[in-house]
Amino acid sequence: MKLSRNALWGSLLLLPATVLLWVFTYQPILTTLINSFYSTPRGRRQSVFIGADHYARMAVDPVFWKAMTNNAVYAAVTIPLSIVLALTMALLVQGRLRGTTAMRIAFFTPTVLPMVAVANIWLFFYAPDYGLIDQILSVVGLGGYNLLGNRDTALWALIAITVWKEAGFFMIFYLAGLQQISPTLLEAADLEGATYWQRLWRVVIPLLMPTTLFIAINAVIGAFRLVDHVVAMTKGGPDNTTMLLLYYLYQVGFGFWDTNYAAAITVVLLTILAVIALFQFGYADKRVHYR
Amino acid sequence: MRISRRTMGKGALAALGAVAMPAAVRGQSAKISFYYPVQVGGSLTKVIDGYVARFKAANPEIDVEAVYAGNYLDTTTKSITAAKSGKPPTVAVLLATDIYTFLDENLIEPFDSFIKSEEDRRWVAGFMPAYLKSAQVDGKLWSAPFQRSTAVLYWNKKAFAESGLDPEKYPTTWEEMVRYGKAVLRKDTSGRTTRWGVGIPGNVGSSQWLFGALAAQNGATLFKEDGTQVTLTDPRVVEALQFWIDLSKTEGVHPPGIQEWGTTPSDFLENRIAMIWTTTGNLTNIKRQATFDFGVAPFPGKVKPASVLGGGNFYIFNKASQAEKEAGFKFIKFMTSDELLADWCVQTGYVAPRDGAWETSTLRNYVQETPAATVARRQILNSVPEFSTYENARTTKVLNDAIGAALTGSKTPQRALADAQTEIDAILKPYRR
């Protein structure tokens, strides 16, 4: 068989990327999948094939389900909230008014800080009585709340931090998106006598849809990927009310050293993310207005 | 002292073995690696580097590579991962409570075969029995106590004086703690509490530690010493948890919900809580920042005053060659000598786990400057080991969750502890022979 010169060159050029992807992405995924069907080796006890036992165990593992529900709530609240907030902030600071640079910096600062640092700062914001939040609440006669130490509020306290931190990051994308919108379209809208809100709803937001899609994908991944604040603030407590899937996975893998059960959880997490990505690129992408 | 005699017997056997061992093993040059965590603030890696340099100067044939590996959890994770990939450290400082995890993974070497000379046996006998106990399983010595700590009560003397209490008198019983707690309570005009009586950290990772102290104060223990049984449904254990809940619910002296470990020292410094339960390791920090006079006291008790031990031990990993293990043992003996432990105690606030260390001039001078440092040492006699079983991370999580559920009111203490007992029984069943 004679290989064309181009095909040979092409394959050679693809080789480095293929090797890297294989070694660091596909091979680990494959190994994880295989390991999830074997028991965890312990000291002298060898690893044996156990079929879907890990998955059966997961189905009745209350902490796993708690983590799943928490993550669903966490994603369902943080993603829309941080997107709306990011767009609002971007619209606020896009003009060339005085002070917008300062505002941009202020909105963006939370993003620059590492999540662990943020979590440690917020630990003191949330401190009962003398913490910033409780002091503000006590001005209006509320207060005395232990937001992180209460089952009903702990997850919401983490959600608030995430929104605060993520919104500034997404704002940057919206600012870039806003720069892309052709002024002629906005002027045309003005000539037609559109109000500010009409212009926003009919022109700006539709034209920002590709940006929104990109941000949404990032936000979904972030909702499953970012658990630094759980580690630093609650470690999943009290009583698993702030347990998120990735933190549980970490705990099972590197706390309990039940590495093959952790592999099974990884497979589930990967599947969830893959389904979301497929939906967004396959279905939502087609409905996004590009031109 | 039952324990040391047993180890001494083992040591004698080991000494016989040493005679038969080829001479080539001894006196050879060896390269060992040493993983250690830094859990408290300060530039302690420099101090460790200094110790290692001193050891190398005295033992030029042994090359020690000291690796700072993060906090305890990081160091444990790194050590186990390294061991699983076939290249474990030779020696490491890791949590005393993780002993069953390492045994279960078959990663560590008992010290007994290295204990040969009279001097070696004196070295073992020099450790405080309470700490030595946490290093022994099945009659073998698996680790050497190094940076140990214990939980103590800090009280705000100014708040005590303001409230008509004797500022020098700390509570010695539960009843006194509640009474003093009520006396120091302060409320603002709207009826909100601005100063609480007592704070006991109950977040994940801290609650099992301090709950061990509460149970011991009520005359109970949370687990059996072979690491395969827990006794959470013991009525005295349930009563201890009920007392913790009642502190805030019925007595109103403890802030509601879960008290956070990380903010507890600042709660104390901000005068929000007049008595806190935390580690001796916070002494240096609180001493530096307190704007008022405070004291450090041993824990109170109901049946008897009691506290709980914590901290890290030296382990030897079993995968190294005999010569490396011998060198590692020599290094550990150096690092846990009286003089070195005394210096480490002054530099960090950890409790030196050898009585001999407290007799050195270094520690005697330190104690004169900081009398609070001896409270920890005196309390050790009344202290119990930290909660530790096989599958320790898992069982500790179950216990933490149960305490969290009870403290936040979603389960009664009876229900929470009974559920935890059932769950832990299932986890530990394979380990019961």
Please provide a written account of the structure.
By secondary structure, chain A is mainly alpha-helical. Helices cover 74% and strands 0% of the residues of chain A. Chain B is of the alpha/beta class. Chain B contains 19 helices and 12 strands. Chain B has helices at 2-20, 44-58, 72-84, 99-104, 118-125, 129-133, 157-162, 174-184, 207-217, 235-249, 264-269, 283-289, 322-335, 338-348, 355-358, 361-369, 373-379, 392-407, 413-428; strands at residues 30-36, 62-68, 91-95, 136-137, 140-141, 144-156, 186-187, 193-199, 273-279, 294-297, 307-316, 383-384. In chain B, the strands form 2 sheets. In chain B, strands 1, 2, 3, 6, 7, 8, 9, 10, 11 and 12 form a 10-stranded mixed sheet that branches. In chain B, helix 2 links the parallel strand 1 and strand 2. Classes of the chains: A mainly alpha (291), B alpha/beta (433). The A-B interface holds A 42-44, 120, 123-124, 127-130, 138, 141, 143-144, 146, 148-151, 234-240, 251, 254-258 and B 73, 77, 80, 101, 103-107, 190, 192-194, 202-205, 255-260, 262-263, 266-267, 270, 272, 391, 393-394, 397, 400-402, 404-405, 407-410.
